């Protein structure tokens, strides 16, 4: 089963994201990938993966991914946040994380949790998302 996965990384976390995706390139190759602007470009430059790129986070990319989350079209998000740097678009980030909670979308905000989710993905532990795609609460009600 192919899932839709969003990859987002703040500036000081982009290298960590590229290294992470490179390490798990085989796992990610079976899924449809989405990313905010520069993060997506860097992943494609360093791997053989194709990534649907949205705008940069501060320019609306987080909101574009949030729109997919709101309609339950995103299955998993890896968002490597920089907790030590203030972000000018912090309200967008909080809104995205809130939408993930509302829709029950698994989201990792650090590399340790990302690794757990990717290992679960590799084992097939996300088959329950097939049920979600058959019935979309809020839309089919």
Describe the structure.
Residues 1-141 form the MGS-like domain. GO terms for molecular function: methylglyoxal synthase activity. Catalyzes the formation of methylglyoxal from dihydroxyacetone phosphate. Belongs to the methylglyoxal synthase family. With 141 residues, the protein is an alpha/beta fold. Helix content is 48%, strand content 14%. The chain contains 7 helices and 5 strands, in the order βααβαβαβαβαα. A 5-stranded parallel sheet has the order 3-2-1-4-5, with helices on both faces. Helix 1 crosses helix 3 (37-46) and helix 4 (61-70) runs parallel beside helix 5 (90-103). The longest helix is centred in the C-terminal third of the chain and has 14 residues, at 90-103.
């Amino acid at each position: 089963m192919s899932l839709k996965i969003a990859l987002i990384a703040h500036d000081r976390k982009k290298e960590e994201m590229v290294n992470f995706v490179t390490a798990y390139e085989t796992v990610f190759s079976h899924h449809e990938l989405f990313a905010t602007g520069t993060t997506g470009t860097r992943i494609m430059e360093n791997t053989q993966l194709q990534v649907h790129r949205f705008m940069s986070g501060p320019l609306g990319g987080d909101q574009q991914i949030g729109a997919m989350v709101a309609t339950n079209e995103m299955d998993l998000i890896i968002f490597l946040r920089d907790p030590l740097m203030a972000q000018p678009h912090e309200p967008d980030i909080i809104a995205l994380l809130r939408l993930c909670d509302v829709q029950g979308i698994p989201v990792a905000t650090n590399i340790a949790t990302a690794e757990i989710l990717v290992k679960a993905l590799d084992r097939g532990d996300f088959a329950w998302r097939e049920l979600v795609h058959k019935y979309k609460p809020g839309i089919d009600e």
